[in-house]
Design goal:
The chain starts with 13 loop residues before the first helix and ends with a helix. It has a seven-stranded mixed sheet, with helices on both faces. The chain has a four-stranded antiparallel sheet with strand order 11-12-13-14, covered by helices on one side. Strands 8-2-10 form a three-stranded mixed sheet, with no helix packed on it. The protein is about 50% helix and about 10% strand. It is built from 25 helices and 14 strands.
Length: about 675
């Protein structure tokens, strides 16, 4: 044997190998059991059902985080590993348990972005959150059980001697291999229109992701979208487009005799592509928008030009609460003017401000962030505050809640408004929720004597919870609904909305007294349906079990002007996404319809209602993304190519809306205005 020969390490015995691997296997198997148990419970609690693919892929995608947490606990000293095991279990249970409570309250999931704003939310709704936790004790208890087990079993699960580096590296390799294998299997699942592959790699649909892959995977996908954006669907690009070397001219003369003008501005997309050639994302956006066909002007274009506008987004408004006796003002406004017979207010995926963002921008909110908050530093040339300011109008916005909530103190002035809320110009009684009537009584005198005004209002009196103890407006008006044949929560909801009725009555009275009613257009729609009611409670207003896929989002749009001699009915399928471009057309504003996800309801553009889970409605039928089925209204068989094109259109409207927000695209195209 040479002088410098190395002494070989003895091969580990079978017992030593078992000890090393069990040091990692025990906590990993425990975490796998915890994650899968809580993921399945979350599905059952939130969706009341699970699918076989959902069970399989949730199990598969639960293995990598379980291996990772097992590695973390197994590599530490036994005592430290035990503490880590209990702490990690508590974090998992807190995240998944909070999702169950949050979904029960808001019908959407909590995002990591929302956590960064939790101090503001907790300050405003802390008492409500505590109340919800108390009411939802069952899911809290169910997800707390693993934490108890972790504390009791931590010493047994994390027992053993020190762990050499090599087993830890092999375990990490196993983790990566399982993750890649799971993603590879998803790649193979390309059947149907909205396949599992499409949901995982393309779509931005948190509910579908949670149903099929689990909440932890949905969180990973959400982070990916926030950091890297949403990929558009390149397979089906716009097939139409009026292109003249990248420039669309609006004049009828340029379009040819008899051809209508279109809502498109003079944008040289080819020049923009050349200028931004080093930025592939911007070049792709320029190319896409150059191919989108703009909506044409129509008989309604400029119909309300020169009139005043009061635009209201009403908290949890539903046309099911309208009654000619209880709500005569809202009833009158809803049954006169322009009436959309198939109007919907979809619920979006991050916060209730998404409903406000959709309505006022004509864009789909980006999954994972507060889109209105994120837009505060962007150039928003189509915002009505900016548009009407240029026309010499006084532009103001009011909200009868905290001035800074959801960063509205930043976003709304950026939209061109003088913005007033509680803490900044509105002195309202400090009850929850505050009074819409008080807001109207203080707001209207500030603008009604102006020569021309454009006013945006966001109400709050109809906010959940719907009980006399938790809703001051419900308690205030309860006597008017006490004898109605509904459950207590439904009666409290109706009572709370009576404050909106009183506010609208005050608005009309003040406008009429000032001689401005005849020259003012009033628009009102909901930010979302009243999800503070359970489906069963909401069904009481319908008189039958409400369909939770489509019907629950059906609602009313008030679009009223005193000089419309008789009601005008529009049967096109449309939604809150379409309100802004519709008003822009009616008031004759300059805007580019290609750069919005919504469409003018009064144009000849086919209707498309997009829901956050990629379900949609068209004039031909309804697509349910949870079952990947398109049902024709006439009972015939759908054209697969038509359905695929509509899914791609949904994806592109979602993706390019997010890209407009991410890239401050209006500034890219127009500069600073």
């Amino acid at each position: 044997m040479g002088l410098f020969s190395r002494k070989k390490r003895p091969r580990p015995t079978a017992g030593e190998l078992w000890s090393r691997w069990s040091r990692l296997a025990r906590p990993s198997l425990f975490f796998l059991a915890v994650i899968y148990y809580e993921e399945v419970f979350l599905k059952l609690y939130c969706f009341h059902a699970v699918t076989l693919p959902g069970l399989f892929f949730t199990l598969l995608f639960s293995i990598p985080p379980a291996l990772l947490l097992g590695l973390l606990c197994g590599c530490a000293a036994p005592r430290t590993g035990g503490v880590l095991l209990a702490a990690c279990t508590a974090l998992l249970s807190t995240w998944l348990g909070s999702q169950a409570v949050y979904y029960h309250l808001f019908k959407t999931f909590l995002t990591l972005f929302s956590l960064t704003k939790m101090t503001m939310v907790a300050g405003a709704f802390g008492d409500m959150a505590v109340g919800e936790i108390v009411l939802n004790w069952f899911p809290i208890v169910m997800v707390a059980l693993p934490v108890v087990l972790a504390v009791l079993l931590r010493d047994r699960l994390c027992a053993g001697g020190p762990l050499p580096p090599r087993p830890a590296l092999k375990w990490a390799g196993l983790l990566a291999a399982v993750q890649l294998a799971a993603m590879g299997l998803v790649l193979l699942c390309g059947g149907g229109v909205l396949s599992l592959r499409y949901i995982y790699f393309n779509a931005a649909a948190p509910v579908l992701e949670t149903q099929n892959f689990g909440m932890l995977t949905q969180t990973q996908l959400e982070v990916r979208r926030v950091l890297f954006g949403i990929e558009p669907d390149k397979q089906v690009l716009p097939k139409q487009g009026l292109r003249h070397t990248g420039r669309i001219l609006e004049s009828r003369a340029a379009m040819g005799a008899g051809e209508p003008a279109v809502h498109a501005m003079d944008i040289d997309f080819e020049a923009l592509k050349e200028r931004d050639g080093d930025n592939l994302e911007l070049v792709d956006m320029h190319d896409y928008f150059s191919k989108v066909e703009p909506t044409a002007e129509n008989q309604w274009t400029g119909r309300f030009a020169g009139k005043n506008l009061i635009w209201i987004v009403a908290e949890a408004f539903s046309d099911q609460m309208l009654d000619p006796e209880r709500t005569p003002t809202l009833w009158k406004l809803a049954h006169e003017g322009i009436i959309c017979d198939n109007f919907y207010t979809p619920l979006w995926g991050v916060s209730t401000s998404d409903g406000e963002y959709v309505t006022t921008t004509g864009l789909v909110p980006k999954s994972g962030v507060w889109s209105y908050s994120e837009s505060a530093d962007n150039y928003m040339p189509f915002a009505f505050g900016r548009q009407f300011q240029k026309l010499g109008y006084r532009t103001m916005a009011f909200h009868d809640y905290l001035y800074t909530y959801y960063d509205r103190n930043l976003s709304h002035p950026n939209m061109g408004y003088e913005f007033y809320g509680m803490g900044n110009g509105l002195e309202l009684e400090e009850v929850m929720p505050p009074s819409d009537l008080e807001m109207m009584e203080q707001a209207v005198p500030r603008f009604v004597d102006e020569e021309r005004f454009m006013v945006y209002m966001l109400t709050v009196s109809g906010h959940l919870n719907y009980s006399r103890e938790e809703n001051a407006q419900a308690d205030k008006h309860y006597a008017q609904v006490a004898d109605l044949p509904y459950s207590e929560a439904v009666k409290c909801y109706l009572a709370s909305q009576l404050e909106l009725e009183k506010a609208m009555e005050s608005l009309l009275d003040q406008l009429e007294a000032a001689g401005k009613l005849e020259d003012t257009v009033i628009v009102l729609s909901a930010d979302h349906y009243p999800y503070g009611l359970t489906d069963e409670e909401y069904s009481e207003l319908y008189g039958h079990p409400v369909d939770p896929v489509f019907e629950i989002y059906e609602n009313g749009l008030i679009l009223w002007s005193a000089d419309l001699e008789e009601p005008v009915h529009v049967d096109k399928y449309c939604s809150s996404l379409d309100v802004m471009p519709t008003l822009a057309n009616l008031f004759g504003l300059e805007y580019d319809s290609r750069l919005m996800a919504g469409r003018d309801i009064l144009s000849d553009e086919p209707g498309l209602v997009i829901f956050s889970n990629y379900s949609f409605l068209t004039d031909q039928g309804a697509y349910d993304s949870t079952t990947d089925t398109f049902t024709m209204f006439d009972g015939s068989q759908p054209d697969p190519e038509y359905v695929a094109e509509r899914v791609a259109e949904v994806q592109n409207r979602v993706a390019y809306s997010a890209a407009i927000l991410d890239w401050d695209y209006y500034r890219v195209v127009f500069g600073d205005g």
